[in-house]
Structure formats: structure tokens, C-alpha cells
Fold each of these.
Amino acid sequence: MTKTKRRTLTAEQKKLDANLWIIALITMAVYCIYGVFGSGIMTFCKDSSISVWPRLFASAALEFGIAGLGITVVCLIRKLSFVSFGLKKENAIKAIVGTVICFIPYIAYIVLSGQFEGYEPCSVIVTYDLHKAGLLTTIVGTLIIAVVWGFFEGFNYAVIAKFISKRYPLKSKLFDLGALVCTLMGIMFHPIHFDTLGIIDLVTTFVALYGMLMVRKYTKNSWGCVFAFIFIWNAI
């Protein structure tokens, strides 16, 4: 009876595994903090009687911890530039246009289902109070929102998808494991209902996120992901 030899991982595969574990552990740690203190943090952030700045920073810190801190730590440890993950001029327009096309079914669903209440990029729980606090506060606060909820949330998908795809490469042109895993991650934290509208929401969300990440893969440009989270996902 012969023993099956265990496949030896290359140094690059071990490094990719470590990268993914670092991101996963940091993200889970922040989620644990949210699980314990989330209710109090949300109550604090929604309290309009408190200055908008501490509420913005509290919500931004939580958001960054979930979608941004992990990839930032990995990039610092590995001395990786964000540019190496597709933040470049080449194919930027193609990436943005391709991503918008992937989001068209989702946008149509939001509008036709009566959920559209106005177009407002960088809209989060403190945005309304930012607008009431004066022009300078609105501008600076909106830039912070764009960086945390827009740039890092969209870029987070791009980086994790690339790490997974490099660790588990596939030859298929239509299927990509990194894109699939990140899409399922996004859907897990998206409200799901199993009625007719809920199923349509699920399908259009899948098309939007998976399509966005496949566009990133083929254009080798991540600006489409960033654009989607600033001007679509957190805007409608």
C-alpha cells in the first residue's frame, strides 16, 4: 500500500497563505470588536447631539478595520506598493466602464424596485450631519468617507481577489476563485431576503461584484473597483 505524497508548497504559496491569514485574522478581530461593542458604537454614531467629527472617526475606524487594515498591514510587511495591485493609468477607463456595465442590472433593480431615494456618492450614517456642519466640514468629511468607504472598501476586494487567484490559479477564462470568494464575502454582508425581490437582489449583486472583479483581472486595473464603491455602491 503506497502512501500519497503531500504536495510541498513553494515559498510564494506559503507567503500568499500567510498574507490571506493576516487579512482574515485582522478582519475577524475587528468583527469580534463590532460584535461586542457594535450596538453602542452605532448608537453613538447616530446621535446628532454629539459633534460629527468623533462620530465620523469612530465609524471610519471600524470600517477601515474591516475593509482596509488587513491589506494595509500585509502591504507594509511585504513592502508592496498599492500601485502593484492595479492602481495605474493603463486601462483605467476600460476598468471603470467595464465595472459600470456590470453594475447596470443592480442599478436597474434598485430603481425599478422603488428603493432609489436619490443619488448621493459617499453617503454613510453621518453624511447628513456633515452637510449641516458647514462647507469645510462637508468637504473634509466627504474626502474621509471617499477614502475609507470608497477607496479602501473597493480596493480591499481587488487585493484579496488577486491574492486568492495567485494562490489558486485556474485556467478558465470565465471562472476565477478569487473573484468568486470575494463576491460571496460581499453577499454574506449584504442583506438577503428569499422572496422574489430578494432573489433578484442576490443575482444582481453577484453579477455586479463578480463582474467588477473579472474586469479587474482582465484589465489588470483596480480603479473600477474603487469607482464602484465611491460612485455606485455607497451612492444609491
Amino acid sequence: MKSLLKYEKQLDEAKSWYLVVFTSFLLLSRMVCFVQLVSNRVNGLGYIAGAAAGGLLCLAELLVHYRRYLKKEYYLLAFFMVACLISSVIFRDYGISENLKALVWMGLQLLLFTSMIPGRDGDSVVCGRRGLKRMMNSLLVIHGAAVLISIGQFLVQSRYIVPDYNDTYDKRQGFFDERLFGIFTDPNYAAVASLLMIVFSLILIQLYKEKKGLKAWYTASAILHSIYIVLSGSRTAMVAFLVVIPVLGYFMWRNSRIDRGEKWHLSGVLAAVGIFAASFLYFNLSSYAFAGLADVTVHVRPYIGLCEYSPEEGISLEREDTGEDISNNRIAIWTSALSLWRDHPVTGLSPRNMVSYALRERPDSYIAKTGYQPHNGYVALLVGCGILGAAPIILLAGIFVFNLCKYLKRYKGKKIEYELLLGMASMMTVGISAVFLLEIFFTVTITITTVLFWFFSGVAFWHLGADRDS
């Protein structure tokens, strides 16, 4: 028994460090300079190594902690994977390799990351608070450094093109088209990651509230990432911010008032409304202030080895690339994708075959003409595996809401654990961004935001009681 307990602790520690290393790698892989430095081949090997190591840990997890998976939540996830496999087999003639990759990464995330739920001291239920803090601090340092460099590019109006990035197309870097791409592959994903970093910072401020130095560091981190969200021009991240931060603020206010034995119902609502209003004003007014600041700081270019900057017009953060379509063609993409789904509503078109199916069967469709992916995680789910695969995910979401309602009723008038708030806020961040981006399901490649969604879904489920009987 003692040897088994020792083995379980070693496995949990190995998974904790795997989480730190692999999520850090995924974060770095969203930075063009990192991929260019290590080469695309080495970067690809990193994904293979991550999958192999994760697969071994999955196998060890299933052998040692198999009882954790004998519950309805994992049965639903298993049914979802079977639905994806069925769809992949049916539509194998349209392509099979990308579907297999998608299934491998999805299986890894569902089995491994959702099992890495934080237990309490003395538990063998993985990682614990120390492992959770270790991961968050690692990501805060890495993404914070990248954001700091990117903001520096904005202040001196640095911009350049990386030709044939990943042997595909030219990649913009620095400040282009009224948006700060920075050193990231995509400003939308970088901005969503920044919102996750703000959530981490706010939670860590509460966990380290007795340490003034750390509180100052996390506060500065939250401010830094909020600046990047504005400069990125990501409306996706801004919408998610306007929902997530007021909700998180409400519960954090609730906890603080309960600590002091004070009423919190009305004041909590007012605090959330105030946070929303302040955030809305910040996003609408700060862009002018940041543009004005760059108009001044850009004059240091000659002193750092850059040519003088003399734009015909002043620096602006007002995007002009969306034209007359406020959705930036997303509505047309979603409509076309759903029209393809209606051809096979039960099984869908398989996780990664939508475009190839459109090219062969519906060449006049918008998807066939543009080659666009769904740009919506939920549309991708429905098109990729149909009603057969969407049903278990909808049921899983229903179970989560039911457990949350039970938890709030059980803890009425009591503090809510900060790890649960962390899990809920992180899920909300990625879940809202999935309305506008290809997140959560069937992404082109595994992303840091998708991994964190499934990891924190495990955190939230465990704290709601779904996993306490493991």
C-alpha cells in the first residue's frame, strides 16, 4: 500500500512538471521568433515529444487511477470520442491524417489534462495548489515577457514581415493595420491568452494577499496584459473581458465581504456593474491615449538604431480591416459551414474534413471558395461530429451547470474556493472566445488556450463535487 501511494505521488509530480513544461512550450510556439529560432522542424518535434510523453502519462494514469474515470462525465467524453471516430471513418475518403491528429490531441487533453485536478494536502488527487501555482507563474513570466517586447514594438512603431512562415504565407510582426501583432503568430489568440493571464494574476493576488511584493508583481502583470488587449485590437478578447472580469469581480467581492462578516448581495452587483462600466470606458478611451503616447515615443527610433518615423497620418488604433462587415466575414463562414452540416446532420463531416468536403461536393459554397475553417468552436463541433458528437458535450455542459447550482446552494453565505473561481473564469474566457475563434474542439494544432480550457474544466468539476468520490 505504501509503495502504491509513493508511486501515485511520483506520477502526480511527473504530471505536474509535464504540465509546466508542455504548456510553456505551447505558449512559446505561438511566438514567431521562437519558431524561427528553433526551426519549424524542431518545433514540430516538440509537439511529437509532448504527445508521446503525454500518452505515456495517460497510460500510467489509467493503470493507477482508473477509478477516476468510472463516472458519467468521462463516459460522455468517451462517447464523444467514439462519435468523432465514426465520423472520421465514414468520411475517410476526404482525408484521414488530419482527423487522426485531431483525435490524438483531443484524447490526450480529455484523458490527461482533465485528470490533473488539484487536490488538497495529503490527497493523491494530483498536483495540488503548489503545482497549480507553479504552472500559472511559469506562464505569467513567459507571456508577460512576450507582451512587454510587443508593447515596446508599438511604442517605437516597429514592423516587419517574416516571409513564408512555416512554408505557408508571410507573417506580420510588430504594429500593422492598426493592430499590435507583436511577436505572436496571431493577435487574437495572444489577447485571449493575456486575458487568462489577468485571471491568473487576480487569483494569485488573493492567494498571496499577505505578501506585498508578490501582490505588486501580479498587479503590474494584470495591467500589462490589459494594455496588450487594447493594442491587439482583438474584439474577441474585449468581449470576453467584459463578461469574465465583472463576474470574477463579483465573486471576489462576495468572498471579501463574507470574510468581514458584511452583507454582499447588492454591493456585489454594484461592484460588477462598476467593473463592467469601467472596463467599457477603458476599451473605448485608452486606445486614444496609447496612440498619443506612441506619437511621442516613436521619436526615439534614431537613438536605438532605427530610421526616423514620419507617417503621413498620426498613429491610430482604429481598425479599418473589417470594412462594412462588423463580423469580419464570420457570419458568412458560419452560415456556409452550417449549410454543409445539413448534408449529414447526424454524423457531421468529420473533425477536419469540412473544407475538402466542400471543395468536392459543394464547390460553389463560401467555404469552398475561401478555404476558411469555421472560426467558431461550437460550429466546428456540430459540423465535425454532428448531433452524435455534440449531444454528449451538451449533456456535459448541463451536468456542469447542475453541479454549479448545487454548489452555490450548498455554500450559500460561505466563501467560494479561489481554485473554483479560477477554473470557472478560465473556462468562461476560452468558452466565450470560441464563439469567434476555432477553440476547444478540432483546432488546427493544439493550443495553449484549448489545453487550459480542458485542464481547468477538471479543476472546476472536482471543486463542484463531481470528482470528490475518486
Amino acid sequence: MANNNKKNPKKPSSAGKPKDTASNKPKAAATAPQEPDDSRIVPTTVKTVAGQIVETETKAPPKEEDDFREDNLEMSQLSFRKRWAIRKKRIKKEMEGMARMQKVEYLLSYFKWPLIFIVGGLLLLILMIIGIKNSSKTVILAISTINVPDKTIVTEEIFNDYKNYKSSDGRITSEVGTIKLDTEVHFSLETYEQQYSNDSNDYSLTQFPVLCSTDFFDVVITDRDGLDFCSASNLILDPETVISPTTVLALREHQANAKDNIGTSYFYAYDITDTEFAKSLGYEDKVYMAFPGSGDTNKYNAERFLCYLFGLELPPQEN
């Protein structure tokens, strides 16, 4: 008979067996997460106070060439060739698919300021060249019109015929030089004191007398009021000291007298009222020509214009 006292073998106890922790581990994901791309990591700077984040600054990743803009510091630090290569690439990219006219408009818009500076610089250069050329050109006649009724009538156009005038010495006016014209002078003995009271800095009272005394003007064209003021103020000369004896003799019948500063009447001007030039000026009464300049050039220009007005031959210049 089997021994019932035989003990069944004991099942091994798990108390002393190390616990399998593998069963408690979370199951691995079916697909492992991708490793972050180191090239896209954006480092940040964190500022803390007592362990609390108070400011986070994100550092921008380095810029590619296409990210540079015209006003960026990085762009300005590049060489010219590098900047132009970046711009060229950007322009080509942005013009893709544009029609021809759209491309033209885009380029004009893109290069607007450089074009403005270039065109402006060229215009300034042209104006400077013209100014230098004109300033070096001889003045064939410097003329002032005194008390002209309508100064808008008195322009260079009224000298068009004189510009084509060929004097007996074979010189055509337009080939000799330019004409300077002044229409801002107003004088009258009767209104002088009031004129001075109204504006003591009036051009007629300040600059014009100085220009006359420095031989700036060759001739002055004036009415009677202006002639009387100029003679009494010693602004004009005795024509016989300016015009050659031959021309003085030929125009004796056109001589006009005026009073000096002590009231004595002298020959001071020529009456040119009946000339076509005088008629074009718009004066309502008598018109006179007087001579403020005493230089050799003043004398030549004045007599040449006088001979033109009366159709005389210009006497040869004295050596």
C-alpha cells in the first residue's frame, strides 16, 4: 500500500525568486520616433530668476543666401560680387512666369532709385557743361530797359533779328556771343523819394547803380523819366566818349539832351523812338538809348547795336 505519508513535491515558491520586471515595462512603440535633425535644432537662451523662467530668447538659424534682404546687416557685409549674385538669383526667381512687359515694369521698379540717381547725375552734368559753356561765351550786348511798361514783352525774342545781324566787320551776332537782358529797373525823379521810403533795398536803388559804375551794361533803353533820373544821378556817360566821331556825326539829328545833377542840359542819349526795335518794346512815348559802360568792350557793343538800329556801317575799331 502506497505510503500516504509521502509528501507531494512542493511547487517552487516565488517569494525568493527575483521579480520579472520585464512584464511591467511599457510596450515598445511599433515605430520608434525619429531622431531630431541636428541641422534644424534652434538653440535658445533662457533667463531665470529664482528658478523661474522670465525670458526666453530664440536664436535664429543661420540664413541661407536667399534669406538675405537689401537692408540686412549680413547683406551689407558681403562683397559686391556676392551681393549682386544674390540679387540676380532673387530677381530671376521672382520674374519666373512674367510676360515681357511685366519683367520690364518689375526691373524698373526694382532699380528705381539707382536709375533716378544716374539720370539725375547725368542731367546735373549736362547743366554744368552748358553753364560753363555759356559763362565762357562772349557777351555781345548787355542791355537794361528802364521803366518798360510790360516787362513780359521784353524777352530775348525781340533780339532775334539782331542775332542774325552781320556788321560791316563781317561778324554775325549769334556767332559772336550772347545777350544779357535786364527789365527790373524803375526810375523817376518825381517818385524817387517815395520809392526809397517804401524799400531802400530796391534793386533799382542799390544794385543797378553799382552795375552801371562797374561797366556791366553796354546800353540802357528808357523813357523820358528814366533818362532824366540817370543823367541827374550820373549813371550814364556823354555819348561822344563812347561812340566814334563818324557815328556821332551820322546820328546828330537823333541826339537828345538831359540835365545833369546841377541842372545843366547836355547831350546824354539818342532818340530811337522811330526804330522798329523801340516800337516792339511797348513804350507809349519817346524812347532813348544811353550808355553807362566806358570799357572798350562796352564801346564796341554799344556802337554795334546803335549802327544796327539805324542801318549804319560799323566803323573799324581803333587799335
Amino acid sequence: MEIEEVERIEEILSNADMSDEMKAACIYGISFTNTVTSLEAKLRGGHDFDLISNDALQTTLEFYDADNVIMTDTDVGLQVAGNYMHEITRAGVSPVCGSDPIYLEKYPMFLQTIEQDQAIVIPDIGQLFPEDSIEYKRLEQGGIHSFIAVPYHKIHSGLVAVVNPRRYTDKIGLLQVLSYVSVAEINEKFLTQLLKENRIAEPLPESADVYVKFFDGLEIHSHNGVLTEHNIKSSRNVALLAFTLLNGKTGVSGYTMEAGLWLNATKPVNARKTELNISSYLRDVMSSFFPDEPLIRCENFRFSVSPTYHVRTDLQEVDALCIEVLRETDVSKKIDLYKKIIQDYSGCVLPYQQDFPCIRDVATEYDHKRLRSLRECLKLLVEERRYDEAVDLATPEGLRYCTDSYLFYWLVRAYIGCGELLHAKDVFEGHKSYLLPEQIVELNSLLN
């Protein structure tokens, strides 16, 4: 149904002899049906997962006439959002989400939405929180006056939120449909990549082995030497290379690459040509390291790793350790694995490329994994009464995770276990503002 036809029907309904509630219900029903039908026709047969997800969120923004639409994965155990985050905004509206992870302990209603699998509809934050409350100030500072949020659970958990909707402010139906579309596409992307990376193939020669290091800066170890990001003349060139390597043989479309490289910056007049020029430049720079076959290929405006090579990364090593520690049942071995994750990966993923969203999202994801390992390790050390080890482990991490409530909670517990009450009280008083209410009550009791 064309938009003009929808508007004509809405005009007829507005003049019809029926209650305002009935008119609103009819108009919503027509708009809902038309939007879903149009979206299905638009996405049918599409194969670019990122574009499909992007179109679904854009449709959500337009349907609700909202300021922002946000979709974010959530680590429920760690209570942190932002492993994967995608936000679309109305023209002229600033993004709500920045580059930092969102600690959901500060927003318990969002965490509750995910944990209890219930949607929330807040027409006015002033009705939910007193104006002098911390929650009200946090939301108001972010430009959030009203919102609708629905959770999702399909391999990953998270939520999709509409910020400051101007119509259908209490209707969650379309948001549920479109969040499912977006999440389904993201999961299919991850699954497709996993299948391609793990498919059975002929053994490759040893010279085809490539090791890529992302922590503390990009390094590509090949049979012919080591290429570092210092060999490449621009951060954007490094980001394109790194983003391609992160997506492996599955690859990433040039349009998704464009959003990752210029989301918050002025795009060149011809972004496609610029990406292809960067790709050509990278092939030249890397030719001495990969003389027989380029490591990176670009076909049909899709960047990917050549199937000629077997690429292994330090990020895969972290993932393997995280799986191993979950399977381990011996507490001492579990602690050793956690310590290895914490000590071996103390740096940041591509620290000099954090201006690019495609890189920043990955860095955030692995920082979350490390923080989760740190929390779990401290918990086990305190439970095993290995207090000195807990203090030695937690103390230097306070600079990196200076607002994490669980880090300082376990550090105070460890100092108490060591009998160092003065140090315990100093840490407690110095970081009380970051602790959760129940942690404050418990530590107060222990200290007194």
C-alpha cells in the first residue's frame, strides 16, 4: 500500500463517527500492517546481514517518529551492555550511546527487562523517577525523556530501545517484530562466519600460516616477516585492514565498512572509490610479506581474507581460554586460567584505532571478557581464602576499572581476610560511590 493511500485512509478515519480510541486503533493497525508488509518486500532475498539489520532499525525510527533507536547485546552475568551496539538517530540528534560500555547496575530497569523478558514503556521519566534522583539526572543528561524497550533472547541477549517516540508511544508490537528481524540477521551473520571459518578444507602448507595480533596494536606475522601498523601510513587504512581481518573469510561488505570508517566523520564524496584505493594501497604494502597471493581480497565490493591462508589471532586464543575456563571443574586450575587471561591480555585491542566504531566495538567486547575473568578470579580467590593473591591481583586493576563495583567489593573483602582493616576501610570509603547498595550494607557489617 502506497503512503498516499495510507494517508487517505487515515484522513477518512479521522472524520468518521467513532471514538478517538477506535480511530487511533484503526490508524495504528493500518500503519503497522503497511510497515511490516513494506519491510518484508524490501528485505526479501537480501544477503547483506548488516544492511538488513540497519534497514529494520531505520524503519523502527520512522514508524515511531523517534529520536534514536538502539540495539545492544548484553552480558547479563557481567551486567554490561555494549558487546555489540548499533544506534540510528534522527537527523540533527546526537547519539545517546558513546564509546564506553554501559554498566547496567546503574540502570536496573534495563537489566530487569532483559532478565525477566518483559518490555517496558516509559512515556515520561518524570513519572518514574523524582527529578532529584540519580536515575532521572542520568537519563535527562542523555536527552532521554521517554522510551520503549523490548528484550531479545536468541543465542545472544540484549534489548532494542526507542528513545523519545512521538507516536504509538505505548505500542510495542512493531518494535518486537523489528527487533527480532535485526537480531535474527546478526545471529545468522555470526553463524555463517562460524561455518565458513570451521569448514573442512585441504591442509594448507606451513607457509600459509598467518598469526594476527590485535592487542596493543596490529601485527601480522607471516612466513616472510612481521608487518605492523607502523608500516601503514594512515589510521583509516589500518582500520580497514583490521576490520577485514576480524571478519575473516566471510568478509564484510563495502557499505558496512563505510559505516565503520566514517560513522562520526565527514565521508569523502566517493567513499566506495576511497575504500578501493585503500585496498589497492594495502596490497602494495603487504606484497613483500604475501608475494604469491594477497592476504586481503576485494570482490564484488566485499572485503575478505583469502582462503589461501590459515589465519589465527590472539582474539581467538582469548575465546578458547574463556571456553576452557567454563569447562574446567578444578578450582585451582580455573583460577590459573583466569589469571592467564588477565595477565596475557592486559592491553587494549588496537588502542590507536579507537576512533572507528568497527574497531571500538571489538575492543569493548574483549575488555568485557577480561573484566568478567577478573571478577570471577577474585571471587574464587576470596572464597578459597587466598586473600594475598586477591589483593595483588586487584590492586593494579583499580586504575583500569576504576568504577567497577565488584572489583572494589572483592578487594575490600580480601583486605578484611588479610586482617588489614585500615586498608579495607580506605578502599571502602574511597570507592563507596561506585558500590551497589547491598554491597555497602554487607561491607559495613564486616568492617564494623
